[in-house]
Amino acid sequence: FAGVAPDEIEDPRPTAEFLRQWSSLHSEFSFLPRKFKIAVTGAVHDRAAILVHDIGLRIVKNDTGEIGYQVVVGGGLGRSPFIGKVVGDFVPREDLLAFLEAILRVYNRFGRRDNKYKARVKILVHEKGIDEIRAAVEAEFAAMDRSAFDHDPEEFERIAAFFAPPPYESLPATSALLRAAKMESPAFANFVDVNVGAHKMPGYAIVTVSLKPIGGVPGDATSDQMRVLADASERFGFGELRVSHEQNIILPHVKQDDLFALWRMLDAAGLATANAGLVSDIISCPGLDYCSLATARSIPIAQAISKRFSDMSRQRRIGKLGVKISGCINACGHHHVGAIGILGLEKKGQESYQITLGGDPTFSASIGEILGPG
User: Are residues 238 and 142 in the same domain?
Assistant: First the structure.
């Protein structure tokens, strides 16, 4: 939803691209103990799961209205899940690269290299404690020659120009056509209520196209369906499609007046399942059916749960509920932060599953509690 969500303080995409260009071929990154992931969000509601990344950046404003970043370090999932801790409450934009460089130097200096499973920055933060890590980062930041990291506002603006909004029309905030269509078609009304979100521009909407039909393989689409989506994006959405980490497709710029025509097009292609965020909108890794690392199957479990909750009215009564499934401890399905998490395990030659409850990937992030013996 970056750049279109009404709850954004600032579009996070220019920051993300700024960091991508900075980090590419960066010498400090070539010597890290292990992989390193950075997530950025610019909204009031976290849709990037920044607290379960090595570094998470939250775009914020200080009391004077200046844009800066709250910096979180040490999050991650996998075999050792941790929620990240705040290492910088407010880092001005001009200091961001130097501050991140300081984190990298601390990680490079103190990160473990004797055990690849303990070589992540989350383990360093856990073993040293966030206070010691924060002190080390602040000391490194203070000692740095920050002239090498001078922020160039013109360069940032050059990057931001690549994320300029499309040529929106001036439209009323509400649509009489939309209201009439919802009254005409209960199925369409359900789709709008569940899969359509508010847009920052009046008269527009954000549409989530669920790739989770009841009993289907999560995230799968046929070549014909992808062609329909391409046509829909050109007809209704300035030619833009996005892929969400929930394994769905996003049309980020749809006129409210066009929603009914879009829905009919999606419905004819089997792409109008109104379950975004509901029980059957399951995140699942490929599991043992396709992945050589997996210890149990994920896809059949997701399909069975989806079929069990085939009654869409029942799903709507339950409300928003994230179910996430991983086929091994690498946690590609983010099961640790699912409201219901399912982890596939191999025990005595048999596929078995560990259930967790209460996970949360947002700003109130939590790791789910294991239910039963596991």
Answer: no
Residues 222-258: pLDDT tens digits?
A: 999 999 999 999 999 999 999 999 999 999 999 999 9
Residues present in the chain in total: 374
SS3 213: coil
Residues 133 and 21 in one domain: yes
pLDDT digits (tens, 9 = 90+) for 347-370: 999 999 999 999 999 999 999 999
CA neighbours closer than 13 Å in the CB half-sphere of residue 183: 6
**Cβ-contact 278, 321 below 8 angstroms:** yes
- What gap in Å lies between CA 34 and CA 132, rounded to an integer? 21
**What residues pair up with 204 in beta bridges, in sequence order?**
255
Q: What share of the chain is helix, strand, coil (3-state, %, to 5)?
A: 40, 20, 40
- In 3D, which of 57, 18, 25, 11 has the Cα closest to residue 38? 57
In degrees rounded to 5, what are phi and psi of residue 168? -65, 150
Please indicate, yes or no, if residue 7 is contained in any of the structural domains: no
How far is 40 from 265, CA to CA, in rounded Å? 33
State the Cα–Cα distance between residues 194 and 320, nearest whole angstrom.
10
What percent of the chain lies above the pLDDT cut of 90? 93
Q: Are residues 328 and 257 in the same domain?
A: no
Both tokens of residue 24? 């590419």
CATH number at residue 182: 3.90.480.20
